[in-house]
Every structure is written in C-alpha cells, then in structure tokens.
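EI: anyone free to look at a 317-residue chain?
SC: sure, send it
EI:
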Amino acid sequence: MAKYVTPILVLAVAVLAIALFIRGGEVITALIINTTNSSYATVNLTNVAPQCEPAIASTGVFDSVDNGASISLLTGGNNTYVKVNTTCNDPNGIYDFVNFTGQFSDTTATVPCTASNRNCSINNSCQNVSKNTTAYIVQCTYMMWYNAENTSQVNKWFGNISVGDTAGNIGRFNDSITMNELLAIGTDSLLAFGAKSANANDSTLAQTLNLYNYGNVEMDFQVNGSQMQCTSGSFNAEYLKVNTTSTSETYALGLPLTGTLQSFAYERSYFNLTANTTLISGQVPNPPSKATYWGIGIPPGVSGNCQSTIWFAAILS
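SC: here you go
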C-alpha cells in the first residue's frame, strides 16, 4: 500500500507556528513557540557631599581680598562687618541643599564656638543665591567689635562656611584672615579747672581726666596741648601739668605740656585690655579706662574765660 503525505495546513502568526501533518492515517501536531527575553540595567546612585570653592572675605565696605590676606577690619570704639563668600556645588542638584551656616573665629576658639566679641561670631542663617542647577553662592555676614583679638602673633581668624544636604553630608571651607592691631584712644570731653586766681598755681594735680582704650592692644599714650587762649591775653601750654599717679601729687611734680604736636610730652601709661570673654556678640564692650591727673598755673596779665585743646595719641606698649 502506497503511503501519501499530503500537507494540510501551515500557519505562521508572529512567534507561533503550527504545522499539521498526515502520516499513516495519523494526525501529528507540532507546536513551535519563538520567544524574546529581556534584562534590566540597574545602578545605585549615592548622595555626594557638597564641595565649596575657596572663599573670599571682605570688610564692612566689602573690598574683596584673597584668601589668607591681611585686612584692616576694626575701627576704634565701633563695630564693623565681615562678609565671607564662597560657591558650593552639589552634583545631586541645588534641591539637595538643606542648610547654610557659618562661624567666624580665631584659633583660640572651639568649633562650634560660643559667641563672644573677642574671638567668635556665629551666623546660622547665611544668605544663599542659586548660581546654576547644582551650585549656590553662599555669603555669611558677621558683626565684629573693636576689641576682637588681633593676629599680631599666631591667632589667625577663619571664616568657616558649612553647607548640608538631605543625606546629612557636610561641605566646609575655611578662609583664613589676619585681624589687624587697633590702636584707638578716647577721653572725657571736658577738663574743667573752675575759677582760678591770676599769678597762682594749683597746689596738687586734683582734676581727673579719664582715658579709654578703644582698640585691641595694650597701649601707652602721648599728650600735648595748645596755647591757652583767654578773653584777655593768653599763656603757654606748659602751665598745664599732668601725671598718672594720684590727685595727691603736687603741681610742681607734674609733667608740663610743650605746646607742639611735633614734640609730644611723654607719659607712659599701660592699658591692660581685658579679654571681655563674658560679653556676648552684639553687646557693646566696655573699654578699659585709666585716670590722668591735672593741674594748672595762671600767669599774671590774663583774665576772663580761658580754653585750650589737649591732644592724645595712642602708641603701642
């Protein structure tokens, strides 16, 4: 008996193909399935800490200086402002930043430090302006008083800017600044001798004039005065005498003024500037003071009201 193989149907659709065969009166079905597999690419992105570029410091008038330079910040008896600027970049984008804080302190202060006029100023709300999609320009401002520690030896100041991100990472930069020595002296506004008789001298140096240290270093002083001008007549500054001992010293033992700024009369008086560590930043510091004691002699031939100008100059001890 002859065998016939007759294809009945071949159907192919997409990935499924069915072939039907007739063999010896039997129907055999073969099922063929084509499949396509896929895999996934994964990566675990970590949160990168912000990085801050070298900062720029500026004074109250905002004259920029290079990192580590010396700048004259302080002014006698007053406060001034320091601004420290930097650019901080975060590869995770600007929305990853969460805080901007700063500390301006010398090398004697801890980190973090306790706010003090002498060696520490803190700013917990530094200004920030977005620069691009990943960077902020950060500026921290600090108020400094005249009695801040100077860096005449080794105590440099540092503008420390810290920026944080959502993962708790911290980026920091320290900008070192040399704080200037400040010599500044203040006095009471008036030295009044009252009514005096012509052709007579005081017996003692009984009038007190206080001097104030409005700087941040120990100082001596120089003193002199102008000619005394009266309603009628005048007389030389040498009739004014001073010392720093006590009101019981005699007029004869006082140091006479010379009447010229080119040849100051010297009286060395040491001003020991205290640390004032208990003064919190922002409070006006009280300047150290020292009394000077004065007397006057009146020559014959003058009358009426008499006035003179007394000059003081601070010098480094």
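EI: The longest strand covers residues 79-89.
SC: 👍
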